[in-house]
Amino acid sequence: MDIKRIGVIGAGQMGAGIAQVSAQAGLDVVMRDIEDRFVQGGLDKIRKGLGKQVEKGKLPKEEADAILGRIHGTVDMAPLRDVDFVVEAAIENKSLKTQVFKDLDALCRPDVILASNTSSISITEIAGATKRPDRVIGMHFMNPVPVMKLVEIIRGYSTSDDTYAAVRDLAVRLGKTPAEVNDFPGFVSNRVLMPMINEAIYCLMEGVGDRESIDTVMKLGMNHPMGPLELGDLIGLDTVLAIMNVLHEGLGDDKYRPCPLLVKMVAAGKLGRKSGEGFYKYG
User: Fold this and answer.
1) Can 190 be counted among the known catalytic residues?
2) Which member of 92, 117, 140, 198 is catalytic?
3) pLDDT in tens, 153-197
4) What is the DSSP letter of 221?
């Protein structure tokens, strides 16, 4: 499959990152979000990220300019009619994602593969909202996208071998390492990672240790680059909660019950880096 122009739905942290690595790989990108301020915010993130590479001498300024020039930000869905592939990177909400895929299915050519960057929601259910379930797949990038090498590729019940092969090849083209997984709640990455973060929050709530001690134990004792509370702040505590709810509901096991402290913090708007405060404060 010849992919030259890619659509990205969502200009947030993940969507902007996907747009950047796609443009760096030579693809033309249509990055769409619902409001211009979100689109401009995504473009600013990309510009800042590329600027850091230029400052460090890792990227010529002319090349950075060319990469930016391949990204078209828009609030309009119409430009997506001309793309060869779409990755959805909207917030982790099943009803929202389902509606996005219905809209894309009606808009895009029948041969276009529709991929979701969901970190936990069933690809089979998302695909069921379309008339092309064989061409729907999960393409779960890790955060931050320009740095992290892994992409989880998730097959839905009807995902075809050709679709999987095309997405695997695209991931390699983007400089990523693909890992094939099947469609279960949380897939592999978040079925393992989120309960660890959730358990760290229980440790904090129950007074087993303070935030610094919990993070230090995991960094120095388990050789993790970030502690689980720091990582939760980076991911976004609302996203952590959403994924824990998917695991709890989908697997029906109380070991996946979200920690009450996590629920309370999200209700209070303490979402981590994105809100300026989570387990730590950010200037």
Assistant:
1) yes
2) 140
3) 999 999 999 999 999 999 999 999 999 999 999 999 999 999 999
4) I
Query: Within this chain, do residues 119 and 57 fall inside the same structural domain, yes or no?
Result: yes
- Catalytic annotation present for 140: yes
Burial (Cβ within 10 Å: 0-12, 13-18, ≥19) of residue 268? exposed
Q: What is the pLDDT of residue 283?
A: 85
Neighbours of 281 (CB within 10 A): 9
What value does the mean pLDDT take over residues 93-102?
95
The mean pLDDT of 241-266, rounded to a whole number, is: 96
Decide if 182 is catalytic.
Answer: no
Please name the residue that has the structure tokens 């120095």. Answer: 220
* Residue 152: active-site member: yes
- Separation CA 25–CA 170 (nearest Å): 10
Tokens describing residue 59: 């990227």
User: Residue 276: pLDDT band by 50, 70, 90 thresholds?
Assistant: very high
Provide φ and ψ at 70, rounded to 5°. Answer: -90, 0
- What DSSP string describes 243-281? HHHHHHHHH--GGGPPPHHHHHHHHTT--BGGGTBSSSB
* Catalytic entry in 22, 119, 120, 198: 119
The answer to whether residues 45 and 174 belong to one domain is yes
Number of domains in the chain: 2
Give the whole-angstrom CA distance, residue 22 versus residue 5: 9
Tens digit of pLDDT for each residue in 108-135?
999 999 999 998 899 999 999 999 999 9
Residue 17 and residue 121 in one domain: yes
> Residue 280 domain-assigned?
no
Q: Which of 117, 133, 120, 75 is nearest to 242 (CA)?
A: 120
Say if strands 5-9 and 71-74 run parallel, antiparallel, or are unpaired: unpaired
